[in-house]
Each structure stands twice: as C-alpha cells, then as structure tokens.
Amino acid sequence: MATMLCNLAIALSMYLVLSPITILATQMNVIDRCWRTDPNWWSNRQQLAKCSVGFAGVACFLIYKASEVIIHGLYIHHCRAEQQSSVMGPNGKIMQLGKVDGDAIRLVSASKVWIDHNTLYECEDGLIDIIRGSTDVTISNNWLRNQDKVMLLGHDDGYIRDTNMKVTVAFNHFGPNCNQRMPRFRHGFAHVANNLYQGWTQYAIGGSMSPSIKSQSNLFIAPKSGNKEVIWRLGSHGSSWKFDSGGMFSKTELLSEKRVLAVQNCLTLMSKGSKLQMQDLCGH
C-alpha cells in the first residue's frame, strides 16, 4: 500500500509539473510560457528548441579558444563595448574576460567555425572580427547592414600568427548602408565568392600585410555618388598582394538583365519584410 501511494504521489507531481493548466500563463517565465500552454507539446518535441531564450550582455558574442562551433539563425545588433569583467568558464571556473570592443561576433584563437544565416547590424565596433590566430572559418548566407566597419580578418599588422588564417566569405548580403571592410583582411588567405554588395562609402574589399584574396562571382552595386572603388590596398604592402578576381568583373555578371532583376526583387522583398519569399529568392 505504501509503495502504491508513493508511486501515485510521484505520478501526480509529474503531472503537476508538466500539465499546462496547473499554472496560469501569466505566472510562467518566458521559456515555460512558450511550451507549457500547449497540451500537445510532447507530439513535436523538436519545436521546443524555439523556446530557448538567451540573456546576454551588450558585449554580444565571443568565441574564445574554441573549435567546431556553428553560429546559426541569430539576430545580433546594437552591441556595445564593455570593460574587463569575470565570466564562468567550464567546470565552474571563474575566468577573466578582457575589454571587448562592441562587435556582434568576435572570434579569438578559434578554429573550425561556421557563421551562417545570421542578421547583424548597428554595433559599436564591427559586425564580425576574426583575430589572434583564428582559422578555418566560413561566413555564409548572412545579412550584414547598417554598419561602418563590417568585417575584420586579422588582428593587426604585427600579429604574424594570422598568416595562417583561412576564411571563406560566401553568399552574404552586404548592405544597405555599409561603409567599409567587407572584408578588411591582413596576412592570411580569404576566398570571397558569390556575395552581393549593395553599395559602400569608402570601399568593399580591402587589406594590408600581403594577404591572398580570391574574389569570384561577386555582384557589386556601386553607389550612385561618392567613391566607386571596390578594392582598397593600404601602403607599400599593397604591391605584394595576391589578388585573383576571377569572374568578378565579367561582362555577363554585370550586365545580365535576369541577374539584375533578381537582385531588385530580392531587395524589394527585404524592404517589405517578406521572409518566406526572401528565403526562396535570396537565400536568406
């Protein structure tokens, strides 16, 4: 009898925890409210992933000395610089985090990272920084807009470890209202392919310290006024660049009416916020 009562109590407690009717929705936190009000939540448990909520500071996203990371499907914006602080690391270890500049996504000594299908805009410093020996990074299918300094690859001119950096930048939409650094590269190797550049103020692709850049099949829509220069090279090191622009300025790519019409339709859908059609036509 005692065993039966014990089992009944356990079953009742589980029911009270899982039942959507035991607690009013207004009394639930934002995560529980997402799923516990649906009596059939268990029938499609994969949808529970949509209920995850992250609470982050204004410093946004930092990957530090990590590998095999995927950053997918996020909206990151209005990131601001933060002073040095402490964070909790693996196994509850307290770690010191240095000052951050206000980037949307910052990779420090990271490798094998895929940044895909994110929307990034309006951050204090840049949208994506890949620095201090980070390598084997793919940046694809992202929408980067409303930003001065968009993407930095390479820490500074004196950081030699970045000569081993390898980054692929493909199928991204830059703009509107982007100024420069799409990307700005130092030292290593970058493959920049099939990106849409919706204008710029200073330049689209730039760098220093003898980088190797292979640019293929990008579509550059130059601004109607101001600087129309696509490539920017800094100082005397520009002469030693290894720059391959295969397909970038092909007559077919620039003058194809079908291609221009597709881009115009894509931009129209983006301005109207038609997300479903935008995914089909624009790949975002």
What does this structure look like?
By secondary structure, the protein is of the alpha/beta class. The protein has two domains: 18-43, no CATH class; 59-249, Single-stranded right-handed beta-helix, Pectin lyase-like (Pectate Lyase C-like, 3 Solenoid). It has five helices and 23 strands. Strands 1, 6, 9, 12, 15, 16, 19 and 22 form an eight-stranded parallel sheet that branches. A seven-stranded parallel sheet has the order 2-7-10-13-17-20-23, with no helix packed on it. A six-stranded parallel sheet has the order 3-8-11-14-18-21, with no helix packed on it. α4 (257-272) packs antiparallel against α5 (275-282). It is globular, with a radius of gyration of 24 Å. It starts with a helix and ends with a helix.
Helix-strand blueprint:
Layout: H1 2-18, H2 30-35, E1 61-64, E2 67-72, E3 75-77, E4 85-88, E5 94-97, E6 105-108, E7 111-116, E8 119-121, E9 126-131, E10 135-140, E11 143-145, E12 147-153, E13 166-170, E14 173-174, E15 178-180, E16 184-186, E17 189-193, E18 196-198, E19 205-208, E20 212-216, E21 219-221, E22 231-233, E23 242-244, H3 251-255, H4 257-272, H5 275-282
Parallel strand pairs: 1-6, 2-7, 3-8, 6-9, 7-10, 8-11, 9-12, 10-13, 11-14, 12-15, 12-16, 13-17, 14-18, 16-19, 17-20, 18-21, 19-22, 20-23
Antiparallel strand pairs: 4-5
